[in-house]
Amino acid sequence: MKKILVPVDFSEQAQNALDFATELAPKLGASIDVVHVADFPVTADPMGVNMQAYFHADMIKQMEEKIREKLKDFTRDVPANNIGARAFEWGNPFAGISRYLAETPVDMIIMGSKGASGIKGLFIGSVTEKIVRTAKCPVIAIKRKTYVADLKDIVFGNDLKDGQDDLVGKVKDLQSMLSAKLHIVRINTPDKFKPDREALPMLRDFVAHYNIKDYTLNVYSDAYEDQGLIYFADEVGADMIALGTHGKRGLGHFISGSIAEDVVNHAKRPIWTYIIS
């Protein structure tokens, strides 16, 4: 692990994500890049139509200086030896973060998530969901204040299909990093139902194939996969949910893009996601 990216919008959730990254970075020997992307200021003409404001160069410079100062203040509690970069640019937040990811190798993204609250902001739904759907490295979405040392029980939702070597390897790395127990669960839904006599042997074969240690095996029934994961995590008192995503909607895979995004939006605990190749 070399670099953690933390996109921020100066919200409480972004501060929680940065605090979590600050605690995690020394354990991984990682540096933290903090990025803020802001939409260019807009104004309304007398007819009420939004139009991009025309500012003098010195006014734009003053705004940028204030934002950079705010960014510096926002990261004041991050040790200097853990800060890799403080980056700011104008533009669409998702496009700006994606551009940064394309230009800078990143091993993990930790970002705040406001969830499905109806409040419009940088990390409400659209940006977080798009990052979960497109990032090529693991993403951890944080809502509440979270301490690394408290993450001891991880729910790992899985459909037990083949071709998951990369995903399971990353989950085992996560488990080792946190010294946590995995609660591996297959969610039974009406359209993807398997009786325990079939599902449990599949689970046992799964852990044997991947040589997974320190785990429990579980089958949980619910009408919906995302809802089942969240309820199961509540029942076992899990500290985090880990799941894979194909990154696109409608592929018919357990934890397809939309399912992962729904879990990120509605779960209160931290969510770890990774795109299955």
Please, could you describe this protein's structure?
This protein is α/β, with parallel strands linked by helices. The chain has 2 domains: 3-43 and 51-142, Rossmann fold (3-Layer(aba) Sandwich); 151-275, HUPs (Rossmann fold). It has helices at residues 12-28, 57-74, 93-103, 126-134, 165-178, 196-210, 225-236, 257-266; strands spanning 3-7, 31-38, 42-44, 50-52, 83-90, 108-112, 139-142, 153-157, 181-188, 215-221, 240-245, 271-275. The strands form 2 sheets. Strands 5-2-1-6-7-12-11-8-9-10 form a 10-stranded mixed β-sheet, with helices on both faces. It has a two-stranded antiparallel ribbon with strand order 3-4. Strand 9 (181-188), helix 6 and strand 10 (215-221) form a beta-alpha-beta unit. Helix 4 packs across helix 8. The two termini are 20 Å apart.
Q: Keyphrases for this structure?
A:
Rossmann fold; elongated; two-stranded antiparallel sheet; 10-stranded mixed beta sheet; 277 residues; single chain; alpha/beta; 12 strands
Would you kindly provide a brief summary of this structure?
The protein is an alpha/beta fold. The chain has eight helices and twelve strands.
Mean pLDDT: 86
CATH homologous superfamily grouping of the largest domain: HUPs
What's the CATH class of the largest domain, please? Alpha Beta
The percent range for helix content is: 25-40%
N/C terminus separation: 20 Å
Question: The biggest beta sheet, please?
Answer: 10 strands, mixed
How much of the polypeptide forms β-strand, as a percent range?
15-25%
SS content category: alpha/beta
Number of helices: 8
Strand order of the largest sheet: 5-2-1-6-7-12-11-8-9-10
Q: What is the CATH architecture descriptor of the largest domain?
A: 3-Layer(aba) Sandwich
